[in-house]
Design goal:
single chain, 490 residues, mainly alpha, Growth Hormone, Chain: A, 79% helix, 0% strand, globular
Length: 490
Amino acid sequence: MSAIPGDLSSPQRGSMLFTVLVCLVAALGGLLFGYDTAVISGAIGPMETYFGFSPAQTGWAASSALVGCVLGALLAGTISDHLGRKRVLIISAVLFLISAIGSAIPLELTEFLTTGYPLFGEHYRLGLSQAAAYPLLVDYRILGGLAVGAASMTSPMYIAEISPARIRGRLVSVNQFAIVSGMLVVYFVNYFIARSGDDLWMRTEGWRWMFASEAIPAALLLVFMFLVPETPRFLAARGNRDKALSVLTRVNGRAEAEQELGEIETVIAQETGSIRMLFQPGLKKVLVIGVALAVLQQVTGINVFLYYAPEIFKKLGTGTDAAMLQTVVVGAVNLLFTIVAIWTVDRLGRKPLMIVGAAGMCVCLSAMGTAAVLKSTQLWVLGFILGYIACFALAIGPVTWVILSEIFPTRIRGRAMAIATTCLWIANFIVSMTFPIMDGNEFLLRTFNHGFPFFVYAIFCVGTIVLVARWVPETKGRSLEQIEEHWMRR
Protein backbone atom coordinates (compact mmCIF):
# COMPACT_ATOMS: atom_id res chain seq x y z
CA MET A 1 0.00 0.00 0.00
CA SER A 2 1.61 3.23 1.16
CA ALA A 3 5.12 3.73 2.46
CA ILE A 4 4.11 6.74 4.57
CA PRO A 5 4.37 5.62 8.21
CA GLY A 6 1.62 5.83 10.79
CA ASP A 7 2.09 6.83 14.40
CA LEU A 8 1.61 4.58 17.41
CA SER A 9 -2.20 4.89 17.27
CA SER A 10 -4.20 1.67 17.22
CA PRO A 11 -6.39 0.65 14.24
CA GLN A 12 -9.39 1.50 16.43
CA ARG A 13 -8.37 5.18 16.60
CA GLY A 14 -6.59 5.75 13.32
CA SER A 15 -3.39 7.68 12.76
CA MET A 16 -3.34 11.46 12.70
CA LEU A 17 0.36 11.40 11.75
CA PHE A 18 -0.39 9.30 8.68
CA THR A 19 -3.20 11.63 7.63
CA VAL A 20 -1.12 14.78 8.05
CA LEU A 21 1.92 13.36 6.23
CA VAL A 22 -0.17 12.21 3.28
CA CYS A 23 -1.85 15.62 3.05
CA LEU A 24 1.51 17.39 3.23
CA VAL A 25 2.78 15.33 0.30
CA ALA A 26 -0.30 16.23 -1.75
CA ALA A 27 0.15 19.87 -0.71
CA LEU A 28 3.51 19.89 -2.52
CA GLY A 29 1.34 20.29 -5.60
CA GLY A 30 0.04 23.49 -4.04
CA LEU A 31 3.57 24.62 -3.20
CA LEU A 32 4.55 24.22 -6.86
CA PHE A 33 1.37 26.03 -7.87
CA GLY A 34 2.52 29.02 -5.81
CA TYR A 35 6.16 28.71 -6.85
CA ASP A 36 5.38 28.62 -10.56
CA THR A 37 2.85 31.44 -10.23
CA ALA A 38 5.25 33.82 -8.47
CA VAL A 39 8.59 32.99 -10.10
CA ILE A 40 7.67 35.17 -13.08
CA SER A 41 7.45 38.25 -10.83
CA GLY A 42 11.23 38.35 -10.45
CA ALA A 43 12.06 37.19 -13.96
CA ILE A 44 9.74 39.35 -16.05
CA GLY A 45 11.76 42.59 -15.70
CA PRO A 46 15.13 41.15 -16.81
CA MET A 47 13.40 39.10 -19.52
CA GLU A 48 11.67 42.22 -20.84
CA THR A 49 15.03 43.95 -21.23
CA TYR A 50 16.85 40.89 -22.59
CA PHE A 51 14.30 40.02 -25.26
CA GLY A 52 13.23 43.61 -25.95
CA PHE A 53 9.57 42.87 -25.30
CA SER A 54 6.79 45.14 -26.46
CA PRO A 55 4.05 45.79 -23.85
CA ALA A 56 1.91 43.08 -25.47
CA GLN A 57 4.81 40.60 -25.37
CA THR A 58 5.43 41.42 -21.72
CA GLY A 59 1.81 40.61 -20.91
CA TRP A 60 2.00 37.40 -22.93
CA ALA A 61 5.24 36.28 -21.27
CA ALA A 62 3.75 36.92 -17.82
CA SER A 63 0.42 35.24 -18.53
CA SER A 64 1.23 32.55 -21.12
CA ALA A 65 1.39 29.89 -18.41
CA LEU A 66 -2.28 30.60 -17.73
CA VAL A 67 -3.19 29.12 -21.11
CA GLY A 68 -1.66 25.87 -19.89
CA CYS A 69 -3.47 26.29 -16.56
CA VAL A 70 -6.83 26.36 -18.34
CA LEU A 71 -6.02 23.26 -20.38
CA GLY A 72 -4.48 21.48 -17.39
CA ALA A 73 -7.50 22.05 -15.17
CA LEU A 74 -9.89 21.02 -17.94
CA LEU A 75 -8.06 17.78 -18.77
CA ALA A 76 -7.16 16.84 -15.19
CA GLY A 77 -10.80 16.48 -14.16
CA THR A 78 -11.57 13.69 -16.61
CA ILE A 79 -8.16 12.07 -16.12
CA SER A 80 -8.48 12.09 -12.32
CA ASP A 81 -11.92 10.47 -12.52
CA HIS A 82 -10.48 7.68 -14.69
CA LEU A 83 -6.86 7.23 -13.54
CA GLY A 84 -7.09 8.59 -10.02
CA ARG A 85 -6.02 11.67 -8.10
CA LYS A 86 -2.59 10.23 -7.29
CA ARG A 87 -1.59 9.59 -10.91
CA VAL A 88 -2.60 13.08 -11.97
CA LEU A 89 -0.29 14.56 -9.32
CA ILE A 90 2.56 12.32 -10.54
CA ILE A 91 2.01 13.52 -14.11
CA SER A 92 1.93 17.11 -12.84
CA ALA A 93 5.29 16.64 -11.11
CA VAL A 94 6.88 15.45 -14.35
CA LEU A 95 5.50 18.47 -16.23
CA PHE A 96 6.75 20.85 -13.52
CA LEU A 97 10.23 19.33 -13.81
CA ILE A 98 10.37 19.62 -17.60
CA SER A 99 9.05 23.18 -17.53
CA ALA A 100 11.56 24.34 -14.92
CA ILE A 101 14.55 23.06 -16.88
CA GLY A 102 13.19 24.12 -20.27
CA SER A 103 12.29 27.65 -19.15
CA ALA A 104 15.79 28.11 -17.76
CA ILE A 105 17.66 27.13 -20.88
CA PRO A 106 15.88 27.82 -23.39
CA LEU A 107 17.58 25.69 -26.08
CA GLU A 108 16.47 23.27 -28.73
CA LEU A 109 16.44 19.83 -27.12
CA THR A 110 19.01 18.32 -29.53
CA GLU A 111 21.49 21.11 -28.88
CA PHE A 112 20.92 20.82 -25.14
CA LEU A 113 21.79 17.11 -25.26
CA THR A 114 25.02 17.69 -27.16
CA THR A 115 26.33 20.81 -25.43
CA GLY A 116 25.34 20.19 -21.83
CA TYR A 117 23.69 22.46 -19.30
CA PRO A 118 24.42 26.04 -20.40
CA LEU A 119 24.18 27.75 -17.03
CA PHE A 120 27.54 26.36 -15.94
CA GLY A 121 30.96 27.42 -17.16
CA GLU A 122 32.40 30.59 -18.60
CA HIS A 123 31.51 29.81 -22.20
CA TYR A 124 27.78 30.29 -21.80
CA ARG A 125 25.87 30.70 -25.05
CA LEU A 126 22.16 30.68 -25.67
CA GLY A 127 22.32 28.65 -28.88
CA LEU A 128 19.28 30.36 -30.36
CA SER A 129 18.54 33.85 -31.55
CA GLN A 130 16.46 35.92 -29.18
CA ALA A 131 13.57 35.83 -31.64
CA ALA A 132 13.60 32.02 -31.64
CA ALA A 133 14.22 31.64 -27.91
CA TYR A 134 11.25 33.76 -26.85
CA PRO A 135 8.52 31.50 -28.30
CA LEU A 136 10.38 28.42 -27.03
CA LEU A 137 10.43 29.93 -23.54
CA VAL A 138 6.69 30.58 -23.79
CA ASP A 139 6.12 26.95 -24.82
CA TYR A 140 7.84 25.72 -21.67
CA ARG A 141 5.85 28.19 -19.56
CA ILE A 142 2.63 26.85 -21.07
CA LEU A 143 3.81 23.32 -20.26
CA GLY A 144 4.34 24.39 -16.66
CA GLY A 145 0.88 25.92 -16.75
CA LEU A 146 -0.55 22.50 -17.60
CA ALA A 147 0.99 21.22 -14.38
CA VAL A 148 -0.28 24.17 -12.35
CA GLY A 149 -3.82 23.76 -13.69
CA ALA A 150 -3.85 20.04 -12.93
CA ALA A 151 -2.33 20.42 -9.46
CA SER A 152 -4.53 23.38 -8.54
CA MET A 153 -7.67 21.24 -8.68
CA THR A 154 -6.23 17.81 -7.83
CA SER A 155 -4.26 18.62 -4.66
CA PRO A 156 -7.20 20.08 -2.67
CA MET A 157 -9.49 17.35 -4.02
CA TYR A 158 -7.05 14.64 -2.91
CA ILE A 159 -6.77 16.18 0.57
CA ALA A 160 -10.55 16.60 0.93
CA GLU A 161 -11.22 12.99 -0.05
CA ILE A 162 -8.74 11.52 2.42
CA SER A 163 -9.35 13.85 5.40
CA PRO A 164 -11.71 13.28 8.37
CA ALA A 165 -14.72 15.62 8.28
CA ARG A 166 -13.86 17.22 11.64
CA ILE A 167 -10.56 18.64 10.35
CA ARG A 168 -11.12 18.59 6.60
CA GLY A 169 -11.33 22.37 6.28
CA ARG A 170 -8.08 22.79 8.17
CA LEU A 171 -6.24 20.19 6.09
CA VAL A 172 -7.53 21.51 2.76
CA SER A 173 -6.43 24.97 3.90
CA VAL A 174 -2.93 23.51 4.28
CA ASN A 175 -2.91 23.38 0.48
CA GLN A 176 -3.40 27.15 0.38
CA PHE A 177 -0.66 27.45 3.02
CA ALA A 178 1.57 25.47 0.66
CA ILE A 179 0.63 27.76 -2.24
CA VAL A 180 1.62 30.91 -0.37
CA SER A 181 4.68 29.15 1.07
CA GLY A 182 5.77 28.41 -2.49
CA MET A 183 5.30 32.08 -3.32
CA LEU A 184 7.27 33.24 -0.29
CA VAL A 185 10.09 30.78 -0.98
CA VAL A 186 10.45 31.91 -4.58
CA TYR A 187 10.33 35.58 -3.51
CA PHE A 188 13.35 34.86 -1.30
CA VAL A 189 15.02 32.86 -4.07
CA ASN A 190 14.44 35.68 -6.56
CA TYR A 191 15.74 38.24 -4.05
CA PHE A 192 18.99 36.38 -3.39
CA ILE A 193 19.50 35.64 -7.08
CA ALA A 194 19.00 39.34 -7.85
CA ARG A 195 21.71 40.17 -5.28
CA SER A 196 24.14 37.63 -6.77
CA GLY A 197 25.13 39.72 -9.78
CA ASP A 198 24.78 43.05 -11.51
CA ASP A 199 21.97 44.11 -13.83
CA LEU A 200 23.74 42.69 -16.88
CA TRP A 201 24.06 39.27 -15.23
CA MET A 202 20.38 39.38 -14.24
CA ARG A 203 19.36 40.14 -17.83
CA THR A 204 21.40 37.31 -19.31
CA GLU A 205 21.55 34.55 -16.69
CA GLY A 206 19.92 35.50 -13.38
CA TRP A 207 16.33 35.04 -14.52
CA ARG A 208 17.25 31.57 -15.82
CA TRP A 209 18.33 30.50 -12.34
CA MET A 210 14.96 31.66 -11.03
CA PHE A 211 13.14 29.26 -13.35
CA ALA A 212 15.66 26.44 -12.81
CA SER A 213 15.21 26.52 -9.02
CA GLU A 214 11.68 25.12 -9.44
CA ALA A 215 13.14 21.74 -10.40
CA ILE A 216 13.92 20.97 -6.74
CA PRO A 217 10.33 20.95 -5.34
CA ALA A 218 9.13 19.31 -8.57
CA ALA A 219 11.50 16.39 -7.99
CA LEU A 220 10.33 16.09 -4.37
CA LEU A 221 6.68 15.87 -5.42
CA LEU A 222 7.51 13.24 -8.02
CA VAL A 223 9.32 11.03 -5.50
CA PHE A 224 6.93 11.38 -2.56
CA MET A 225 3.73 10.80 -4.58
CA PHE A 226 4.85 7.20 -5.13
CA LEU A 227 4.77 6.71 -1.33
CA VAL A 228 1.15 7.76 -0.65
CA PRO A 229 -2.13 5.88 -1.29
CA GLU A 230 -4.96 6.72 -3.65
CA THR A 231 -7.96 8.41 -2.02
CA PRO A 232 -10.56 6.07 -0.48
CA ARG A 233 -13.44 7.72 -2.34
CA PHE A 234 -11.82 7.11 -5.72
CA LEU A 235 -10.95 3.54 -4.73
CA ALA A 236 -14.54 2.90 -3.65
CA ALA A 237 -15.89 4.41 -6.87
CA ARG A 238 -13.67 1.96 -8.80
CA GLY A 239 -14.85 -1.02 -6.76
CA ASN A 240 -11.64 -1.45 -4.73
CA ARG A 241 -13.46 -1.82 -1.42
CA ASP A 242 -10.66 -3.48 0.53
CA LYS A 243 -8.10 -0.84 -0.40
CA ALA A 244 -10.57 1.95 0.38
CA LEU A 245 -11.32 0.43 3.78
CA SER A 246 -7.61 0.05 4.50
CA VAL A 247 -6.95 3.75 3.85
CA LEU A 248 -10.01 4.86 5.84
CA THR A 249 -8.94 2.64 8.75
CA ARG A 250 -5.52 4.28 8.89
CA VAL A 251 -7.19 7.70 8.85
CA ASN A 252 -10.27 7.25 11.07
CA GLY A 253 -9.93 3.92 12.88
CA ARG A 254 -11.74 0.67 12.04
CA ALA A 255 -15.23 1.38 13.40
CA GLU A 256 -15.56 4.82 11.87
CA ALA A 257 -13.98 3.57 8.64
CA GLU A 258 -16.68 0.92 8.17
CA GLN A 259 -19.42 3.49 8.72
CA GLU A 260 -17.88 6.07 6.39
CA LEU A 261 -17.24 3.52 3.66
CA GLY A 262 -20.89 2.51 3.88
CA GLU A 263 -21.95 6.13 3.39
CA ILE A 264 -19.57 6.51 0.46
CA GLU A 265 -20.87 3.35 -1.24
CA THR A 266 -24.50 4.39 -0.70
CA VAL A 267 -23.94 7.75 -2.35
CA ILE A 268 -21.91 6.25 -5.20
CA ALA A 269 -24.65 3.70 -5.90
CA GLN A 270 -27.11 6.56 -6.43
CA GLU A 271 -24.85 8.43 -8.86
CA THR A 272 -24.82 7.97 -12.61
CA GLY A 273 -21.26 9.23 -13.04
CA SER A 274 -22.30 11.25 -16.11
CA ILE A 275 -21.37 14.89 -16.45
CA ARG A 276 -25.07 15.43 -17.18
CA MET A 277 -25.63 14.75 -13.50
CA LEU A 278 -24.35 18.27 -12.79
CA PHE A 279 -27.32 19.72 -14.64
CA GLN A 280 -29.92 17.94 -12.53
CA PRO A 281 -32.07 20.12 -10.22
CA GLY A 282 -30.04 21.09 -7.18
CA LEU A 283 -26.70 20.11 -8.66
CA LYS A 284 -27.03 22.63 -11.49
CA LYS A 285 -27.26 25.29 -8.81
CA VAL A 286 -24.13 24.07 -7.04
CA LEU A 287 -22.22 24.10 -10.34
CA VAL A 288 -23.15 27.74 -10.91
CA ILE A 289 -22.17 28.61 -7.33
CA GLY A 290 -18.86 26.77 -7.64
CA VAL A 291 -17.97 28.48 -10.91
CA ALA A 292 -18.96 31.89 -9.53
CA LEU A 293 -16.78 31.39 -6.43
CA ALA A 294 -13.82 30.34 -8.56
CA VAL A 295 -14.14 33.30 -10.92
CA LEU A 296 -14.65 35.83 -8.12
CA GLN A 297 -11.49 34.61 -6.38
CA GLN A 298 -9.53 35.84 -9.39
CA VAL A 299 -11.41 38.95 -10.55
CA THR A 300 -10.87 40.53 -7.15
CA GLY A 301 -7.33 41.13 -8.46
CA ILE A 302 -5.00 39.00 -6.34
CA ASN A 303 -2.70 37.89 -9.14
CA VAL A 304 -2.05 41.46 -10.25
CA PHE A 305 0.02 41.78 -7.07
CA LEU A 306 1.56 38.32 -7.37
CA TYR A 307 2.63 38.70 -11.02
CA TYR A 308 3.54 42.38 -11.11
CA ALA A 309 4.49 43.23 -7.50
CA PRO A 310 8.19 44.09 -8.09
CA GLU A 311 7.31 46.16 -11.15
CA ILE A 312 4.56 47.98 -9.22
CA PHE A 313 7.01 48.81 -6.44
CA LYS A 314 9.61 50.00 -8.97
CA LYS A 315 7.03 52.40 -10.43
CA LEU A 316 6.63 53.77 -6.92
CA GLY A 317 10.30 54.74 -6.94
CA THR A 318 12.15 51.82 -5.31
CA GLY A 319 15.23 50.12 -6.75
CA THR A 320 15.41 46.53 -7.93
CA ASP A 321 16.67 45.08 -4.62
CA ALA A 322 14.17 47.09 -2.56
CA ALA A 323 11.31 46.08 -4.85
CA MET A 324 12.26 42.42 -4.46
CA LEU A 325 12.49 42.82 -0.68
CA GLN A 326 9.07 44.49 -0.49
CA THR A 327 7.70 41.58 -2.49
CA VAL A 328 9.11 39.25 0.18
CA VAL A 329 7.14 41.25 2.78
CA VAL A 330 3.98 40.72 0.70
CA GLY A 331 4.69 36.98 0.65
CA ALA A 332 5.30 36.89 4.41
CA VAL A 333 1.97 38.60 5.15
CA ASN A 334 0.25 36.18 2.77
CA LEU A 335 1.78 33.24 4.65
CA LEU A 336 1.02 34.59 8.13
CA PHE A 337 -2.68 35.16 7.52
CA THR A 338 -3.04 31.84 5.72
CA ILE A 339 -1.90 30.23 8.98
CA VAL A 340 -4.63 32.17 10.78
CA ALA A 341 -7.16 30.87 8.24
CA ILE A 342 -6.06 27.27 8.79
CA TRP A 343 -6.76 27.55 12.53
CA THR A 344 -10.10 29.33 12.14
CA VAL A 345 -11.82 27.72 9.13
CA ASP A 346 -13.08 24.70 11.14
CA ARG A 347 -13.88 26.86 14.17
CA LEU A 348 -15.62 29.90 12.70
CA GLY A 349 -16.88 28.27 9.52
CA ARG A 350 -16.50 29.04 5.83
CA LYS A 351 -19.14 31.76 5.37
CA PRO A 352 -18.05 34.20 8.12
CA LEU A 353 -14.44 34.14 6.95
CA MET A 354 -15.43 34.68 3.31
CA ILE A 355 -17.70 37.63 4.09
CA VAL A 356 -15.27 39.37 6.45
CA GLY A 357 -12.32 38.79 4.12
CA ALA A 358 -14.12 40.08 1.02
CA ALA A 359 -15.28 43.17 2.92
CA GLY A 360 -11.72 43.91 4.04
CA MET A 361 -10.41 43.46 0.50
CA CYS A 362 -13.04 45.87 -0.80
CA VAL A 363 -12.00 48.54 1.70
CA CYS A 364 -8.28 48.13 0.93
CA LEU A 365 -8.78 48.16 -2.85
CA SER A 366 -10.91 51.28 -2.61
CA ALA A 367 -8.23 52.90 -0.45
CA MET A 368 -5.50 51.90 -2.93
CA GLY A 369 -7.48 53.40 -5.79
CA THR A 370 -8.05 56.60 -3.83
CA ALA A 371 -4.36 56.77 -2.85
CA ALA A 372 -3.40 56.43 -6.52
CA VAL A 373 -5.79 59.19 -7.57
CA LEU A 374 -4.42 61.47 -4.83
CA LYS A 375 -0.81 60.47 -5.67
CA SER A 376 -0.18 59.44 -2.07
CA THR A 377 3.13 58.19 -0.67
CA GLN A 378 4.50 54.73 -1.30
CA LEU A 379 4.26 53.88 2.43
CA TRP A 380 0.48 54.30 2.29
CA VAL A 381 0.24 52.21 -0.86
CA LEU A 382 2.33 49.43 0.68
CA GLY A 383 0.08 49.46 3.76
CA PHE A 384 -3.04 49.08 1.65
CA ILE A 385 -1.44 46.29 -0.39
CA LEU A 386 -0.50 44.39 2.77
CA GLY A 387 -4.01 44.83 4.19
CA TYR A 388 -5.52 43.52 0.96
CA ILE A 389 -3.16 40.52 0.91
CA ALA A 390 -3.97 39.76 4.57
CA CYS A 391 -7.73 39.75 3.92
CA PHE A 392 -7.32 37.55 0.85
CA ALA A 393 -5.10 35.08 2.71
CA LEU A 394 -7.53 34.95 5.63
CA ALA A 395 -10.55 34.06 3.53
CA ILE A 396 -10.99 34.04 -0.24
CA GLY A 397 -7.60 32.42 -0.91
CA PRO A 398 -7.89 29.23 1.18
CA VAL A 399 -11.63 29.01 1.84
CA THR A 400 -12.63 29.08 -1.83
CA TRP A 401 -10.58 25.92 -2.39
CA VAL A 402 -12.10 24.32 0.73
CA ILE A 403 -15.63 24.94 -0.55
CA LEU A 404 -14.85 23.79 -4.10
CA SER A 405 -13.33 20.55 -2.78
CA GLU A 406 -16.44 19.84 -0.68
CA ILE A 407 -19.58 20.65 -2.63
CA PHE A 408 -19.49 18.33 -5.67
CA PRO A 409 -20.64 14.65 -5.82
CA THR A 410 -17.92 12.00 -5.45
CA ARG A 411 -18.15 10.22 -8.80
CA ILE A 412 -17.98 13.38 -10.87
CA ARG A 413 -16.10 15.58 -8.39
CA GLY A 414 -13.05 15.61 -10.65
CA ARG A 415 -14.93 16.83 -13.71
CA ALA A 416 -17.00 19.31 -11.70
CA MET A 417 -13.91 20.79 -10.07
CA ALA A 418 -12.30 20.87 -13.51
CA ILE A 419 -15.09 23.10 -14.82
CA ALA A 420 -14.82 25.47 -11.85
CA THR A 421 -11.01 25.50 -11.90
CA THR A 422 -10.91 26.04 -15.66
CA CYS A 423 -13.17 29.06 -15.26
CA LEU A 424 -10.86 30.26 -12.46
CA TRP A 425 -7.81 30.14 -14.74
CA ILE A 426 -9.67 31.82 -17.60
CA ALA A 427 -10.57 34.63 -15.19
CA ASN A 428 -6.94 34.75 -14.03
CA PHE A 429 -5.76 35.05 -17.63
CA ILE A 430 -8.24 37.85 -18.37
CA VAL A 431 -7.22 39.80 -15.26
CA SER A 432 -3.49 39.37 -15.99
CA MET A 433 -3.87 40.51 -19.60
CA THR A 434 -6.23 43.41 -18.91
CA PHE A 435 -4.36 44.94 -15.96
CA PRO A 436 -1.48 46.34 -18.10
CA ILE A 437 -4.06 47.63 -20.59
CA MET A 438 -6.14 49.39 -17.93
CA ASP A 439 -3.05 50.61 -16.10
CA GLY A 440 -1.52 52.03 -19.29
CA ASN A 441 -4.61 53.60 -20.85
CA GLU A 442 -3.94 57.32 -21.31
CA PHE A 443 -7.48 58.45 -20.48
CA LEU A 444 -7.64 56.29 -17.34
CA LEU A 445 -4.17 57.48 -16.30
CA ARG A 446 -5.21 61.11 -16.60
CA THR A 447 -8.42 60.46 -14.68
CA PHE A 448 -7.40 57.89 -12.05
CA ASN A 449 -3.54 57.82 -12.11
CA HIS A 450 -3.19 53.99 -11.96
CA GLY A 451 -6.16 53.69 -9.58
CA PHE A 452 -8.89 52.51 -11.97
CA PRO A 453 -8.15 48.73 -11.83
CA PHE A 454 -8.40 48.75 -8.03
CA PHE A 455 -11.90 50.24 -8.12
CA VAL A 456 -12.96 47.54 -10.60
CA TYR A 457 -11.64 44.77 -8.35
CA ALA A 458 -13.39 46.33 -5.34
CA ILE A 459 -16.75 46.03 -7.11
CA PHE A 460 -16.16 42.30 -7.57
CA CYS A 461 -15.45 42.00 -3.83
CA VAL A 462 -18.97 43.30 -3.22
CA GLY A 463 -20.26 40.60 -5.58
CA THR A 464 -18.41 37.97 -3.54
CA ILE A 465 -20.09 39.13 -0.33
CA VAL A 466 -23.55 38.90 -1.93
CA LEU A 467 -22.91 35.43 -3.39
CA VAL A 468 -21.60 33.93 -0.15
CA ALA A 469 -24.22 35.52 2.10
CA ARG A 470 -27.14 34.55 -0.12
CA TRP A 471 -26.33 31.23 -1.80
CA VAL A 472 -23.34 29.41 -0.26
CA PRO A 473 -24.27 26.94 2.53
CA GLU A 474 -22.12 26.44 5.62
CA THR A 475 -20.23 23.12 5.29
CA LYS A 476 -18.26 23.15 8.55
CA GLY A 477 -18.23 19.74 10.26
CA ARG A 478 -20.34 17.97 7.62
CA SER A 479 -19.21 14.88 5.71
CA LEU A 480 -18.90 15.07 1.93
CA GLU A 481 -21.88 12.74 1.65
CA GLN A 482 -24.03 14.96 3.90
CA ILE A 483 -23.13 17.99 1.79
CA GLU A 484 -24.12 16.12 -1.36
CA GLU A 485 -27.46 15.13 0.17
CA HIS A 486 -28.09 18.82 0.96
CA TRP A 487 -27.99 19.66 -2.75
CA MET A 488 -29.93 16.58 -3.85
CA ARG A 489 -32.86 17.57 -1.60
CA ARG A 490 -33.19 20.95 -3.33
